[in-house]
Amino acid sequence: MKKMVFSVIAAMCVFGFTACGSDNSSSSAPSETTAQTEAAQQETLTEKTDEMTEAEQSDEEKTEPKKNEEQSQNTNVNESKTADTVVVYFSATGTTKEVAERIANVTDADIFEITPAEPYDDADLDWHDDNSRTTIEMNDPDCRPEIANDTVQLEDYSTVYIGYPIWWGDAPRIMSTFVESHSFEGMTVIPFCTSGSSPIGKSGENLASQANGGNWLEGERLDASISESEIQDWISEMN
Q1: pLDDT tens per residue, range 107-131
Q2: b (16+ CB within 10 A) / e for 195-232
Q3: Statement to judge: residues 115 and 178 lie in one domain
Q4: Is residue 194 part of a domain?
């Protein structure tokens, strides 16, 4: 009898252990499956994020050339702009250039820079040196320095502003080269100059005498720091 009771108890213990092992196995399986599922979802999310990033980069690469193309087209439009007024100038140091650009802005004019075939360096511009290039040129009324880029078509304009620095009380000889090479017939020509303190003097009259026709106005010396509103006042006084 005791043996039978012992056998029953032993059997119940074995059944209990088996059931516990089965419960533990069942509870651990969903945990491993969940981890695998989360890892797969994360991998999928990462792949989609990478795809979106590549797509955005592709869109940026497609957009950037379009922006550059639009900027290029705008630049071409500005370069091909035409008007009935042009500002022609020569500037050795940049002072006359800045004033000329302001005049062009105020008058909505085209602008053309006279470029010498042989640029002037600091030694050339040394007016203290009797042997400097500019001293020699200005001492020779017949000197005509060559222009590298005389391509402007003046017949397209009715008003021409002519700008230059004052050298030795007159316009640089390269300005004589320019006015003698063009016809100003039927145009209004307005000289202007820049200088440390020297007035425009007879420089405009001298250029007028060398030019082929044109209605040459008296002209004016303009300060290097002149504002666009002051330029507008100057222009208004001439009219």
Answers
A1: 999 999 999 999 999 999 999 999 9
A2: beebebbebbebbbeebeebebbebbbbeeebeeeebe
A3: yes
A4: yes
Q: Are 211 and 179 in contact (CB under 8 A)?
A: yes
CA nearest to 85, candidates 63, 61, 103, 60: 103
Q: What is the mean pLDDT of residues 80-87?
A: 78
Q: What's the pLDDT tens digit per position in 21-41?
A: 444 444 344 444 444 444 444
Q: What was the pLDDT predicted at 30? A: 42
Q: How many domains does the chain have?
A: 2
Host domain of residue 40: 31-80
Q: Are residues 151 and 48 in the same domain?
A: no
Domain assignment present for 26: no
Bridge pairing between strands 85-89 and 159-165: parallel
Is there a domain that residue 10 lies in?
A: no
Please give the span between the terminal C-alpha atoms of the chain, in angstroms, as a whole number.
Answer: 139
Residues 111 and 227 in one domain: yes
The candidate with the shortest Cα–Cα distance to 188, out of 81, 85, 96, 110, is 85
Whether 63 is covered by a domain: the verdict is yes
